[in-house]
Design a protein that fits this description.
Length: 100
Amino acid sequence: MEVYLIHKLIDFNKLQQGGEQTMKGKTLKHKPYLKFKGALAERGLVQKDIAKLLNLSPVTINQKINGTLDFSFSEIEVICTHLDISSEIFRAMKVATNSN
């Protein structure tokens, strides 16, 4: 399966096989939060709105949503409370890294 995110091809088959994946040269810590992106779209919100909510830069929010940084538990709690969504939406499989 292939999905385009931010003009960068992410090969999820490679992730499932334990291959290291990068986005714009940064190693992914987790798969992108696609369900969270969908929840934002359903509510007419954009990443910039979440950045304001958490007092973070839009770039940082983008990195957290797309897998190069992790959300903290307190950030997830604020988002879930504000948007009235379950924290389950943030369940993500960690990206396997090569131990070579």
